[in-house]
Design brief:
Layout (H helix, E strand, L loop, with lengths): L1 H9 L5 E5 L5 H13 L3 E5 L19 H11 L3 E3 L3 H4 L18 H4 L3 H16 L3 E5 L3 H13 L5 E5 L19 H6 L2 H14 L5 H13 L4 E10 L13 E9 L2 E11 L6 E4 L1
Parallel strand pairs: 1-2, 1-4, 2-3, 4-5
Antiparallel strand pairs: 6-7, 7-8, 8-9
Helix pairs in contact: 6-7, 9-10
Length: about 280
């Protein structure tokens, strides 16, 4: 992989990279499509990273569909598929980890201790191996993207992080590999995440700027769904991912909700338009 990447750079080609853990859906192929507009070659990876799963999480049962995933990437136009195994990424005696301090210990980091250390470490390794000019990530994992962007900046990596829109089902549920875990009833109930975010957006459109009121609105929508249990529902600054009290700068409404044993996340990005009271929304 390193030799192929160096050859592409030597030929002055623009390398695009889409790192994944497999179990592909249309969100992943949308990243490939965006990369193909801007890059050639497009490289994708599949690696289920053991370092980002906690001891009681779903590493063992995480869906692995290598044959069908390979076919999907090929059909989408991926030029090279990188399939390292765990022993290559984490050889015997591996001891070096990447931690982005101040962003990794809240929200997802609070609920999943050590998760972002594993994410930052594997992404750092993949970027060093593939040496892409651009790497493409979905905005559904907003905190993860923010942490990776900080790591790239802090460590002077030669990759630009490109953040792409969330891809959703017709009923609003954000595409996720973990949606496959849901029972039929849980799948119907899972739309509560989108409904909670839409309720927050409706309040914002009506002029509400108080973050606590918006959080309360989201929590009430989730509480009304018997199969849902909220992990967190907060309004946070888009840069620091710290709670804010009033909508006056770019921010996220972020959600993590359990449907049975399955934990799903989603978000709404909100930013002021110029100096006006108008807001732009990105679901």
């Amino acid at each position: 992989m390193k030799e192929a990447a160096r050859q592409a750079r030597a030929e002055s080609r623009i390398i695009g990279f889409v790192p994944t853990m497999g179990a592909l859906h249309e969100g992943h192929t949308a990243l490939v499509q965006r990369s193909k507009l801007e890059c050639s070659p497009v490289i994708a990876s599949i690696f289920v990273n053991p370092k980002q799963f906690g001891p009681n999480e779903d590493f063992a049962k995480y869906p692995r569909k290598l044959e069908s995933d390979s076919e999907k990437f090929s059909a989408a136009g991926v030029d090279t598929l990188f399939l390292p195994d765990a022993a290559e990424i984490y050889p015997t005696g591996f001891r070096t980890y990447v931690t982005v301090e101040g962003l990794s210990d809240r929200l997802e980091g609070r609920s999943r201790p050590g998760h972002f250390r594993g994410v930052a470490t594997v992404v750092m390794k993949l970027l060093e191996i593939v040496e892409p000019h651009y790497a493409y990530f979905g905005r559904k994992d907003a905190q993860q993207v923010r942490i990776i962007s900080q790591m790239v900046r802090d460590l002077n990596l030669e990759t630009e992080i490109v953040v792409c829109p969330i891809i959703r089902e017709p009923d609003g549920l954000a595409l996720s590999s973990r949606n496959a875990y849901l029972s039929a009833d849980e799948r119907r109930a899972a739309t509560v995440l989108h409904r909670a975010l839409e309720a927050a957006r409706a309040k914002l459109s009506a002029g509400v700027r108080d973050a606590l009121q918006l959080q309360s609105t989201m929590r009430k929508v989730i509480a009304a769904e018997p199969l849902a249990r909220v992990d967190y529902a907060e309004i946070v600054d888009a840069d620091a991912f710290e709670p804010i009290t009033r909508i006056a700068r770019p921010c996220y409404a972020v959600l993590a909700v359990f449907l049975g044993k399955t934990r799903l996340i989603d978000n709404l990005y909100v930013e002021p338009v110029g100096d006006s009271e108008e807001l732009a929304y990105h679901l």
